[in-house]
């Protein structure tokens, strides 16, 4: 006799409205369903993608949930207009989170000051609407932790998406009562993230793909998609020496709790 254990997973960060999926989006979504992905949370980028994101959510309202925000790499000279659009959307309806926001000091430092201003405004939106904030940090994790810590009045909730920092940084984030979003990087040889995760319990860990980016091993370098979340949960279970079903249950429960799904 054999049984099939039902495993539910939530991909808490995927850009599945991206043109990378235009050719096979429905097949991709059905592969995700086959792997037990019950929900997918979509981070907003900027006005060039809001419409496609909301359209996909409308098509699959139970499965695909939108966030709203302005990505730090999209903070340019028109950031005031972009933020007005974001705030207008929040006036009209509710979203699962504010994001993605944060600081990106890797690609371009031209709008560093504006990135801070926009991140701060989005933290205030999250507090105002009582929803989590989804933080992108690249070459800026300490700066992001600092801004979160200044704003943590006991009510700020959120996640450091695609976390790949040190044990100390992980502990600082957990102490601030925020979560760590763990994805394909965990499967990369030499990422060192496995050793970090070994030192943490799973209380504040949620899973994500960041599709179409950062595909896990064995698809590293290829287009990522939600069904590949299974490689992340497998690796997580391996690192924590627990059953895959247990790692899935804990991280899915965490995601449900954080995003009130
Ligand atoms: Zn993202």
Overview of this structure, please?
There is one protein chain. The protein is of the alpha/beta class and 261 residues long. It contains 9 helices and 8 strands. The protein has a 5-stranded parallel sheet with strand order 4-5-6-7-8. β4 (98-104), α4 (112-129) and β5 (133-138) form a beta-alpha-beta unit. α8 (229-240) packs across α9 (244-259). The protein is globular and about 45 Å long. Bound molecules: zinc ion. Zinc ion binds at residues 13, 15, 43, 100, 210.
Give a brief description.
The protein is 41% helix and 13% strand. The chain has helices at residues 25-34, 50-59, 79-92, 112-129, 141-151, 167-175, 193-198, 229-240, 244-259, and strands at 9-11, 37-42, 64-66, 98-104, 133-138, 158-160, 179-182, 205-207. Helix 8 packs across helix 9.
Key features of this structure:
five-stranded parallel sheet; 261 residues; alpha/beta; binds zinc ion
Cα shape: globular
Helix content: 40-55%
Summing up helix and strand content along with how strands pair, one would put the structural category as: alpha/beta
Number of helices: 9
Strand line-up in the sheet with most strands: 4-5-6-7-8
Strand fraction: 5-15%
Bound molecules: zinc ion
List low-confidence stretches.
Answer: none
Largest sheet: 5 strands, parallel
Gyration radius, to the nearest Å?
Answer: 17 Å
What is the overall pLDDT average?
96
Number of strands: 8
Helix and strand pattern:
EHEHEHEHEHEHEHEHH
For the record, give the distance between the C-alpha atoms at the N and C termini, rounded to a whole number. Answer: 35 Å
